[in-house]
Amino acid sequence: MEIAIYTFCVMYSPGPVNLLAFNAGLRVHPWRLAGYCVGVGTAMFSVFLVLGYLGAAVVRSALLPYFAAAGSAYILYLAYHLFAARTDWHQQTPAPTRMRFHQGYLLQLLNPKGWVLVLPVTTVMFPAAGLSGYQIPVCALLISLGAIGAPGSYAVLGRMAGRRIGNARTSAFVNKAMALVLVAVAVSIVYDFFIAGTHAA
Fold first, then answer.
1. What is the tens place of the pLDDT at every residue in 127-156?
2. Spatial contact of 151 and 31, defined as CB atoms under 8 Å apart
3. Helix (H, G, I), strand (E, B) or coil at 99
4. How far is the C-alpha of 135 from the C-alpha of 179, rounded, in Å?
5. Closest by Cα among 155, 160, 186, 6 to 80
6. Given 3-state DSSP classes, what are the helix, strand and coil percentages for the chain, each rounded to the nearest 5?
C-alpha cells in the first residue's frame, strides 16, 4: 500500500511530462496522445529494469548527473518550441509539440526526477515489502501502467480546459506560460543536481 501511495502521489504531481500532456490536450483529443502516454509508461518500466540490473549505487553516483543534464536540455528544447509556436484556435492546426511515443519515452527516460522516484522503491520499499524474484518486474509493470495514466489524466484536464478557451490570444498565453514553467523545471533540475547536490544525499 505504501508503494502505491508513494508512486501515485509522485507520478500524478505536476511535472514536465504531465504539463506537456495538459498543454497538448488543450488542442487535440486525449486519444491522440495515447502513444505519448504509453511511451512514458514504457520508459518508467525501463528505469526499473536498469536500476534492477545496474544497481541503485551505480546509477546514483555515475549516471544520474548525465540524465539531469540531458533531461534539462531536452525540456528547454521543448519549452522553446512551445513558446515560439504560432496558434490559431479557429484552425485545426497540429499541437505546438507533436506528442508521440518516442517523445514520451525520451522525456521520461531523461527526467532525473523519474529515476529519483524509482530509487527508494527498488532499494527500500521492495525489500521492506518482501518482494523478490518475479514479483519485482510484475510490481514494476503495474506501477508503469499507472505512469501511463498520469499524463493521460492531465490530457483529459487539458481537453476540458480547452473547451473554455475561445481565442488565439488566450491560447498563445497558455503556451507561453507553460513554456516558462518548463524552463523553471529545467532550472530546478540543474540546481538540484549540480548546485545543491541533492542527488548525492
1. 777 777 788 888 889 999 989 999 999 999
2. no
3. coil
4. 40
5. 186
6. 80, 0, 20
Measured distance between the N- and C-terminal CA atoms of the chain, rounded to whole angstroms: 25
Q: In 34-68, which positions are buried (b, 16+ CB within 10 angstroms) versus exposed (e)?
A: bbbbbbbbbbbbbbbebbeeeebeebbeeebbebb
Quote the cell numbers at residue 133: 524474484
Q: What is the pTM of this model?
A: 0.75
Rounded distance between C-alpha atoms, residue 92 and residue 105, angstroms: 26
Q: Which three cell numbers stand for residue 139?
A: 510490481
User: How many Cβ atoms from other residues are within 10 Å of residue 138's Cβ?
Assistant: 11
> Mean per-residue pLDDT for 175-188?
83
* Identity of the residue numbered 155: A
Query: What is the amino acid identity at position 128?
Result: A
Cβ atoms of 28 and 95 within 8 Å: the answer is yes
Burial class (CB in 10 A: 0-12, 13-18, 19+), 157: middle
